[in-house]
Amino acid sequence: MSDDLKQFEAEILANIEAATDEVALEAIRVGVLGKKGTLSERMKTLGKMTPEERQVMGPALNGLKQKISDEISTKSKLLSSAALEARLKSEKVDVTLPTQATPENAGRVHPISQVIDEVTAIFADMGFAIAEGPEVETDYYNFTALNFPEGHPAREMHDTFFFNEKEDGERKLLRTHTSPVQIHTMENQEPPIRIIIPGKTYRCDSDATHTPMFHQLEGLVVDKAANIANLKWVLEEFCKNFFEVPHMNMRFRPSFFPFTEPSLEVDIQCDRSGNEVKFGEGNDWMEILGCGMVHPNVLRSSGLDPEVYQGFAWGIGIDRIAMLKYGMPDLRAFFDADSRWLSHYGFRPLDIPTLFAGISQ
After folding, report:
1. Nearest to residue 68, comparing CAs of 38, 36, 46, 23?
2. 165 contact partners, CB below 8 Å, separation of at least 6
3. In a domain, 268, yes or no
4. pTM of the full predicted structure?
5. Cβ atoms within 10 A of the Cβ of 166, count?
């Protein structure tokens, strides 16, 4: 090998040794072995040499090319290993630190939305459909069609938000219960009817257990053979699944609602002796909902013949059963939009309630 080629080799090997990162090493490789690299240019001169010169320079240049390739490969592995080690040091994780919540884990489902999903899962398994209706109603659908005669004292039980009276004398209102949806459904659907009606309702009331806007669940079954025994079974199955207990003792007491006859208040067995209320055990009772057989006048108002059809209905406060199940003491906090409260009482977005996996997860 000529002195010129030895010097050329020494310079390249020195440059390879001095490379501090993979980018610099790649630049050396391209500059030497690339299509227009210094070594590639030298190899192009072989064609102009005499046969004797090619016999010497050919093996020398090819050997040098292989040597440089090997040196670059070895150096690349060293630099890659060093870069990985430096990255691991700079990106090390302290496993004792709390994990950072990802967006899907940081968000929370409001307890009201969760409870509506839980209730829907339970009744859907029983074959109920979901019905909805307007929140701004007429006096007819909110009161008259539900057997509240004009001037009846029962109207005073509902502290109603009325809108200003129109020129034709009509005065609309914010519905005080979800019961008007029963009338809309019976007017537009032939029995058998089996629906639940979750939704917002409005009354002039505000304290630790009442708010001007709250959520109610209404249930309605209309058929030729619907009876009290069916009603009791539906409510027992619902309470048992919602509170996730194997047994649920219930007590039915006579009451009064204009739209049902007979009307009943329902108490469920509970134990208040500890720091939390336990359902399905103990010697105490707690009123949980109102129910009854649909009044014949309500069936007539909806265009159904009470001599042919009969039905039962019930209503329950969604906010209240959420408080009972999950131990929330003040209803007003539901609507304060406090992220700390929601972080504590809220539910993970992907925990969808199902009967087979567990209602409350």
Report:
1. 38
2. 171
3. yes
4. 0.67
5. 9
- Expressed as residue numbers, the domain containing 29 is 3-90
**Residues 55 and 181 reside in one and the same domain:** no
Burial class (CB in 10 A: 0-12, 13-18, 19+), 2: exposed
Q: What is the pLDDT of residues 183-198, one digit of tens each?
A: 999 999 999 999 999 9
- Indicate if the pLDDT at residue 1 is higher than 60: no
Measure Cα distances from 55 to 47, 65, 144, 237 in Å: 12, 16, 114, 97
- If phi > 0 it is left, if psi is from -120 to 50 it is alpha, else beta; for residue 337 that is left
One domain for residues 274 and 247: yes
pLDDT above 70 (res 9) = yes
Q: Are 62 and 205 contained in the same domain? A: no
What interhelical angle do 3-18 and 51-90 show, nearest 10? 10
Cα 165 from Cα 173, distance rounded (Å):
10
Q: Is the dihedral of CA 98, 102, 103, 104 positive or negative?
A: negative
Is the same domain home to 77 and 130?
no
